[in-house]
Write a structure and sequence with these properties.
With 733 residues, the protein is of the alpha/beta class. The chain has 19 helices and 34 strands. The protein is globular and about 85 Å long. The structure holds adenosine-5'-diphosphate and zinc ion (ZN) (2 copies).
Length: 733
């Protein structure tokens, strides 16, 4: 407790802040939220420690008021440690926690709008559908205009016309306050098998002891991981503690929410990036006042002001979506483990394809390993085979019956035969291709000109549904030129994306009912749910999707999965590409045959002997992991070495180059630490920014963060230059 009059350090949620000194007008505890002003602007901050500025007393302002909520001392330590690990300022970490506007105020009156389901005679366009989906994501509750725009990602004009044509109707302005005081009960009516029991017991021991531990819950899809962690969640919850279940956004499905509800008698509180400001506020308040003790959420749910956490479960722990890459770089899984360690509670990491980082921690004895070896009830695993494209070259197809010219296809005869057979049995097919749009390369046949984004150093993809060229880096859209802008020659489309595969399927299997699933078509969970419903009711025959479709859903009538280009991820420049491809293919393969009928997975490849593919076909995850980890160990790549990427961005190319040269010239020279760069980033230009990178590498025990910190303190970046630090980067673009 600090007495009234004490000079304390108050941390402000600002990306460069490490705390300012203020005088306390009343007694207050460490960690309490307070109102202060900085340069006459009001802020909510947190008492972070004793004042240290040494400023004369008359220069120190008073804290304006002390608020009723606080963070625990271990959470303050977490902010500090997370800052040291990620090299974000402590204020940047606090900003992740305090990212809910008005959490401390009475709700503002705002004009709200409801979606009018009865409106007639209006056209449903894609952007209007996005607005409908935004409502659906929020249980069709009224929303403010800013919520609608933010969640649907549409401009003001869309909303304006929808108000004018009656699709959106204003309702009496009132703040929505939702209570999340759900009553949970344990409604389990299943008995865990012995493997599951052993796993659940191990986690529960640590829950009961309130001891830090990390356990990897390792089992294929359908082995009962969810059952096991539900048991553990109940144990912590019923002991009065809070439970956070983290998931990638696309795994957070209605199917999952229904399962939670049937197990615990009430729905989970759900946290994700598409909630209205009012919901975010209510959930934030519910968590800090202890009313919400069971929540399912994405990465950012970790930053809710948790009180008395007793367990964090991280499902699909290997998933890349746990890594945050803008507004500060951090890994949600690792930061959850750090939080658990400082507050003494267990963490469960669940996965069918654990990351090599986690497997290494298991091997080193730092994490426990709880293995579920079989699918529950002995459900069959699909057979997985490769199709050698060298011997089975795809053939041409006619895009329209009356076309004279043929287009080169991407589907080989054996895959087409398998599709035909599956369709004739009235079963469903899923085809994967991790490429959006129609054609990734748009090129002049005469002079070789390639369509490039005018702002980024990236080629543009032709999107047939949009009828435009789209930059996948910055989202810029331009019309498809009729002829080459350089020489007037004919334009050709090269390579195949989702839309082209759909064209080929329809050409080869007339009357087939198809759907495309990618981030272009599935902008919201509502859209995905509609697709799932169509699959379940048998209104679709073939779904063609990117890996967005690889997660969570379970379709009993889906018996064939085809991977159009299994080689696509195998030869990247990134040391994680083999691991990542393995995880994706494994997950994709897991979609087939989860019902009564055994499934079949076909992988088209030019390299059937590639170790990733043989491991997938033989179901031999562990030997793949072993050899890939050996390769990484030899190359001193994470987790056997450490990397920190430094990305420097500046709108002026020459300023950037000079600054990077200067930075290189003052780089520290330390034994066992290599500083590589500067090099042009793989994507050298994004929008108006030019980009260069450095990479700092050291062995697993080197303390790289302080070295980077010291190094960067030696320079003063020029105006408009951004320095981004990425500890253990997963993205090398
Ligand atoms: P995972 O999370 O590993 O994919 P789930 O927990 O979803 O696996 O289990 C797969 C299916 O098997 C689910 O339908 C689940 O209800 C069922 N199941 C798993 N374990 C049991 C059990 N011990 N008793 C009854 N059903 C079970
Ligand atoms: Zn040309
Ligand atoms: Zn671009």
């Amino acid at each position: 407790m600090f007495n009234s009059g004490t000079i304390v350090k108050v941390l402000i949620p600002n990306i460069i802040n490490s705390g300012y000194d203020y005088r306390l007008p009343v007694d207050a505890e460490l960690g309490t939220f307070v109102r202060v002003t900085v340069m006459n602007r009001p802020y909510i901050g947190v008492i972070f420690g004793i004042g240290t500025s040494g400023l004369p007393s008359e220069k120190i302002k008073n804290v304006q008021s002390v608020l009723k909520w606080k963070l625990s001392v271990s959470d303050l330590q977490w902010i500090q440690k997370m800052s040291e690990w990620t090299l974000m300022a402590p204020g940047a970490v606090l900003r992740l926690i305090l990212n809910v506007p008005d959490a401390f105020d009475t709700p503002r009156m705002e004009q709200l709008y409801a979606y009018n389901f009865d409106v007639d005679n209006v056209k449903m366009t894609q952007s209007r559908q996005m607005v409908v989906d935004a409502f659906e994501l929020n249980d069709n509750e009224p929303m403010s205009i800013s919520d609608i725009q933010n969640i649907a990602r549409v401009g003001p004009s869309v909303v304006k016309t929808m108000i004018a044509n009656g699709m959106l109707t204003p309702i009496n302005s009132r703040p929505i306050i939702q209570s999340y005081a759900y009553e949970y009960r344990d409604m389990a009516n299943i008995e865990l098998n012995s493997e599951q029991r052993a796993a659940a017991d191990a986690i529960m021991r640590d829950v009961d002891a309130a001891e830090f531990s990390v356990n990897l819950l390792d089992g294929i899809t359908g082995s009962g991981k969810t059952q096991v962690y539900f048991d553990a969640a109940w144990r912590a919850y019923s002991a009065g503690r809070a439970v956070l279940l983290m998931m990638p956004e696309i795994a957070l499905t209605t199917q999952f929410i229904q399962r939670f509800e049937s197990r615990f008698g009430a729905p989970p509180v759900v946290w994700h990036s598409n909630l209205t400001a009012a919901h975010r506020r209510d959930i934030w308040r519910g968590v800090i006042n202890g009313e919400i003790r069971m929540l399912v959420g994405t990465r950012s749910a970790l930053f809710l002001p948790w009180q008395n956490l007793g367990l964090i479960i991280i499902d699909e722990e290997h998933d890349y979506s746990y890594k945050q890459e803008d507004m500060g770089n951090y890994h949600g899984r690792d930061m959850a483990i750090l939080r658990a360690k400082l507050s003494n509670f267990p963490v469960v990491l669940a996965s069918a394809t654990p990351s090599e980082e986690t497997m290494n921690n298991v091997e080193m004895g730092r994490y426990g390993h709880l293995v579920l070896r079989s699918r529950y009830g002995g459900a069959q695993l699909p057979t997985i085979e490769t199709i050698d494209l060298r011997e089975n070259r795809p053939t041409e197809y006619r895009a329209n019956a009356d076309d004279t010219d043929m287009r080169m296809g991407a589907l080989s005869q054996p895959l087409c035969d398998a599709i035909g057979e599956t369709l004739s049995n009235n079963h469903q097919v899923m085809l994967f291709i991790n490429r959006r749009g129609f054609a990734p390369i748009v090129q002049c046949q005469r002079c070789g000109w390639v369509a490039m984004c005018p702002d980024c150093s990236a080629g543009m993809t032709y999107h047939k549904k949009l009828g435009k060229l789209l930059c996948h880096i910055c989202g810029r859209m331009v019309p498809l030129p009729k002829n080459c802008p350089d020489c007037g020659g004919d334009i050709s489309m090269r390579g195949a994306g989702l839309e082209k595969i759909e064209e080929e399927i329809i050409a080869r299997f007339p009357n087939v009912r198809t759907a495309l699933v990618s981030s272009d078509t599935m902008i919201s969970r509502g859209a995905l749910e509609r697709l799932v419903a169509k699959m379940e009711s048998g209104e679709l025959d073939v779904v063609i999707g990117t890996q967005i479709l690889a997660k969570g859903h379970h379709f009993p009538n889906l018996t064939l999965v085809g991977v159009v280009d299994a080689d696509m991820g195998l030869f990247g420049t990134d040391f994680r590409c083999a691991e990542h491809t393995f995880q994706q293919l494994f997950q994709v393969a897991g979609r087939a045959g989860r019902g009564q009928i055994p499934g079949r997975v076909l992988l088209q490849t030019y390299q059937p002997a590639h170790p990733v593919l043989t491991a997938i076909c033989n179901g031999d995850r562990d030997s793949f992991l072993k050899s890939d980890m050996a390769a990484r160990r030899a190359a001193k790549m994470p987790p056997f070495g450490q990397l920190i990427a430094i990305i420097i961005e500046c709108p002026k190319e020459n300023v950037l180059k000079q600054f990077c040269e200067h930075l290189a010239s003052v780089a520290p020279n330390i034994n066992g630490v290599r500083i590589m760069g500067p090099v042009m980033a793989q994507i050298y230009q994004i929008r108006t920014m030019y980009r260069m990178r450095f990479l700092v590498a050291g062995d697993a025990r080197a303390a790289l963060q302080p070295i980077v910190k010291l190094w960067l303190a030696r320079v003063r970046p020029p105006a408009n230059t951004r320095i981004k630090i990425d500890v253990n980067p997963m993205n090398f673009m």
